[in-house]
Automatic annotation (TrEMBL):
This is Large ribosomal subunit protein bL21. Keywords: Ribonucleoprotein, Ribosomal protein, RNA-binding, rRNA-binding. Belongs to the bacterial ribosomal protein bL21 family. It comes from Arthrobacter subterraneus. GO terms for cellular component: cytoplasm; ribonucleoprotein complex; ribosome.
Length: 102
């Protein structure tokens, strides 16, 4: 089984060909493709982690759709002072499909 650990949106994701992964927003429209930097490559029993070998590895992904994450409600409250604050947040996300690891 071939899989790679890639850097995506400040996090690391384990991906293999055909996986659907949700990442932080990636610039581009649905259907466009881009490359992700590989940090580790596992090909059966062979593990590649050297920087000069990983420079030759390309992990390509195709954008499936741009979407927004669930609403997160942030509430602050201090007792006996009348202080209340409510704030919401929705993350901008992109769903991508991994098309190749070479």
């Amino acid at each position: 089984m071939v899989y790679a650990i890639v850097r995506a949106g400040g996090r690391q994701e384990k991906v293999s060909v055909g996986d659907l992964v949700t990442l932080d927003r990636v610039p581009g429209e649905a259907g466009s493709s881009f490359k992700l930097p590989a940090l580790l490559l596992v090909d059966g029993d062979k593990v590649t982690s050297a920087a000069q070998d990983l420079a030759k590895v390309t992990v390509t992904a195709e954008i499936v759709e741009n979407l927004r994450g669930p609403k997160i409600v942030i509430q602050k409250f201090k007792n006996k002072t009348g202080y209340k604050k409510r704030q919401g947040h929705r993350s901008e996300l992109t769903k991508v499909k991994i098309t190749g690891i070479k």
